Amino acid sequence: MSELLWVLFDLVLAGLTVGLAWVAVATRELRRGVLLFVGLGLLLAVIWARLRAPDLALAEAAIGAGIAGALLIAALRDEIGVSAEPEDGYTASRRLVDLGAIGLLLALSWGLLDAFLLSDGVRLAEGVAERLGESGVINPVTAVLLNFRAYDTLLELAVVFAAVLGVLSVGPARPALEAGSLVLTGLVRWLVPILVVVAGYLLWVGAHAPGGAFQAGAMLAAVAVLLRLGGVAHAGLPGTAATRWLLVLGIGVFVIVGLSVMFADRAFLQYPGDIAGVLILVIEIAATLSIATALALAYLGGRPVGWEADCDSPQHRVNRGAADRGGDA
């Protein structure tokens, strides 16, 4: 009986996911589409949890729904007064986009089916479990992301870095919000320390249980979003020079660690077994700070005040102080 209930639950989840995705794409009202997208991210987190992938569930909830939702809502604020209704109805360009999306879906479906048919049935999870003792961590997901396939994670950090460079090239950051009500300010003061502690816990526990750098970085980015909503103009980011260093810290530490092990006659990012755990922790700390900084800058929507100026110049300190006072006004 319980098995039948789980099957029904899975069918309901699948139906809700397809329906919510369709409504989110088909709606003509921007605000409704954004809210539906956030709901879809939370639903995907539930699906990942149902598939017994808690690491992905945490990442989807924190990044796919939380941070992505905050970015979309911030972008929606910039589009006030823009009509969501198409002027010419169902235009030829929209038809081309729809046809392209359908073609991509068919190609991906064919590739997935072909991969299943050509599979030899050997699960990579079994190989990971056999060599987990060499990874320096207990969590198999962390072992894959930061040891066995660390090069892929390095490229992911490079993609995040490239994305935030695109945001910084757009122009200055959005104007800071005015200071919120006493209730919002008090809530921010309570939540920020708690979220910082939770981020530290997720970072530390990633070696043994679901968690890690991406989840912890998203949690710290949520702190920046709360501070920004509470009227802090710089969203908790340090000075310009420190922000730039934090932005490249993850990639820099990753590359330095990978090159340093080569002096011990090892391949790039092939850690010695006796210190693998320590090296992974160092990389995760640096990656957490870089991810949090990148997501916070993305939420600001552009270059912070004084980004082009000399970070140690008196003018930069004056601009930063003026921005802080403007956020507290």
Secondary-structure map:
Blueprint: H1 2-26, H2 30-50, H3 54-78, H4 92-118, H5 124-130, H6 140-148, H7 150-170, H8 182-205, H9 213-229, H10 240-260, H11 276-300, H12 314-328
Helix pairs in contact: 1-2, 2-3, 3-9, 6-7, 7-10, 7-11, 8-9, 9-11, 10-11
In short:
Helix content is 72%, strand content 0%. It has 329 residues and is mainly alpha-helical.
Give the key terms.
single chain; 329 residues; mainly alpha; 2 domains
Alpha-carbon distance between the two ends: 60 Å
Q: Give the structural class.
A: mainly alpha
Strand content: under 5%
Radius of gyration: 22 Å
Plain-language structure description:
By secondary structure, this protein is mainly α. The chain has 2 domains: about 80 residues, no CATH class; about 200 residues, no CATH class. It has 12 helices and no strands. It is globular, with a radius of gyration of 22 Å. The termini are far apart. The model has no long low-confidence stretch (mean pLDDT about 85).
